[in-house]
Amino acid sequence: MKTKILEITDPQKDMSAIRYAAEVIKNGGLVAFPTETVYGLGCNALDIHAASKIYEAKGRPSDNPLIVHLSDPSRVEEYVYLEDPLAKVYMDHFWPGPLTLVMKKKPIIPDSVTAGLSTVGIRCPSHAVARLLIQKAGVPIAAPSANLSGRPSTTEASHVIDDLNGKVDVILCGGNSVYGLESTVLDITRKPAVILRPGFITLEDLSFINPDTIQASDTSMKDGIPKAPGMKYRHYAPRAKMLLLRGDPVKVSEYVDGIYEKKEGEKACVLTVEEWTHYFKGKRVFDLGPMTDASRIAGNLFSVLRKIDKTDINVIYATYLEGKGLYTSIMNRMKKAAGENVMNL
Q1: H helices, E strands: number in the chain
Q2: How far is CA 211 from the centre of its chain?
Q3: I need a labelling partner for 134 at 20 to 30 A (CA). Which of 25, 249, 301, 343 fits?
Q4: CA-to-CA distance for 90 and 302, rounded, in angstroms?
Q5: pLDDT digits (tens, 9 = 90+) for 175-188
Q6: Is the pTM of this model over 0.70?
Q7: N-terminal to C-terminal alpha carbon distance within the chain
Q8: Which residues contact 197 (CB under 8 A, 6 or more apart)?
Q9: pLDDT digits (tens, 9 = 90+) for 299-322
C-alpha cells in the first residue's frame, strides 16, 4: 500500500487535505491524524468491516476495543444511551477534551468496533484537525493510537510514519500532540464510576464531579475482554528491556553502578528526571524533564522512549516517579512499558 502523507500547518488553509482524508474514511479506508492526546488511527466507526483494517495495520488483537470519536458532543445520543444522569455533567465539563466515557452502545455501533462488548468508549477531541476530519467525514471515527501494537504511542508525525507508512491510506501530519498521553477512560456504566485507564484528566479532576470515582486495577475486564484499551496487553514498550527502580536516588544510583553494562553485550541507559541526572554521571542519561512539571514529563515520555529506540541501547534503567494526580497516569504508562518489571530498593 502506498501511503499519502499530507502536511497540515493551518487547518483552514489546508482544508483540501482534510477533505481528502475524510473521503478516505467515508470509503472504508484508514487515516492517521493528530489529536490533543496522541496521534490516532481512524476508520468509519459505523462500517462493520473497517475496524478489521485497523487491527491488521497495527497488529492489534481484535478483542481490544476501539474508542469512537465525535466532532460535536450534541450528537452523542445517536450512538449511546445516556443512562447515567452524570453523563451530561462529565461531557459539559470535560468535552471537547481528553476524557473517554464508557457507556452502553446503540446498535448503530458495530460489534467489530467494541470487541463484542455492549459498551463503547466515546469522546470528543479538542484538536482542530481531528474535529474537522470527523465533521467532514460525516461519521464518527473509531481510532486507537496510531502506532504498531505494543509500541510507544505516537506524539509526533514522524513517529507515525516510522510505524505505519505503507500500512495505512493517509497520514495527516499536524504537529506534536499537546498532552502526550492517551485519554482518560471512565466507565460510567458501573457504580461507582471506574477509571479504566488514567490519563491527563486525573482521579482528582473527576472526583470534583463525582467523589465516589475510583481507580480500577488493570484486571478490570469482562469475560477476559478489556473494556478499554491499555488494560490487557503489553503496551507502550520500547525495543529495549526496561526495568523500573523504585527508591531514593542515592540507592537507585548505587544499584545502577553495580550492574550497569556488566553483562556481555549490554548497552544501557538511565531514564530519569532532570533533578536526578547528576546521580548518574558517566552513563547515558535520558531526561524526561523536571519532577516539578508532570505535564512536561507526560508530554515527553513517548518521544523519549522512541528516541532511545533510535540508538543501540538494549537495557533501560528507569527511575520510578512517586506522586499523585498526573503521576498516576505517567506511571501507568511506564509500568506497562516495562512489562510491570519493578524493583523496590
Answers
A1: 10, 19
A2: 25
A3: 301
A4: 28
A5: 999 999 999 999 99
A6: yes
A7: 49
A8: 100, 182, 183, 184, 185, 228, 229, 230, 231, 332
A9: 999 999 999 999 999 999 999 999
Q: What is the pLDDT of residue 216?
A: 80
Q: Is 338 left (phi over 0), alpha (psi -120 to 50) or beta?
A: alpha
Enumerate domains of the chain plus CATH numbers: 4-226 (3.90.870.10), 241-344 (3.40.50.11030)
Low-confidence residues of the chain: pLDDT under 70: 217-234
112 sits in which H/E element: helix 111-114
d(CA 246, CA 232): 24
Contact 175, 36 (CB under 8 A): no
Q: Which residues contact 241 (CB under 8 A, 6 or more apart)?
A: 314, 315, 316, 341
Task: Give the burial class of 187: count Cβ atoms within 10 A of its Cβ; 0-12 exposed, 13-18 middle, 19 or more buried.
Answer: buried
The strand ranges marked E within the chain are 4-7, 31-33, 40-44, 67-69, 80-81, 99-105, 119-123, 141-143, 170-173, 184-187, 194-197, 214-215, 221-222, 225-226, 241-246, 268-272, 285-287, 315-319, 342-344
Please answer whether residues 13 and 121 qualify as being in contact, where contact means their C-beta atoms are separated by less than 8 angstroms: no
Apex 205 CA angle, 146 and 73, nearest 5: 55
The Cα 14–Cα 86 span in angstroms is: 38
Q: Which grid coordinates belong to 269? A: 541507559
d(CA 89, CA 94): 8
Residue 230 burial by Cβ neighbours in a 10 Å radius (0-12, 13-18, 19+)? buried
How far is the C-alpha of 276 from the C-alpha of 200, rounded, in Å? Answer: 24
| Alpha-helical runs (H) found in 260-311 | 294-309
What b/e string do you get for 272-284 counting C-beta neighbours within 10 Å, with b at 16 or more? bbeebeebbeebb
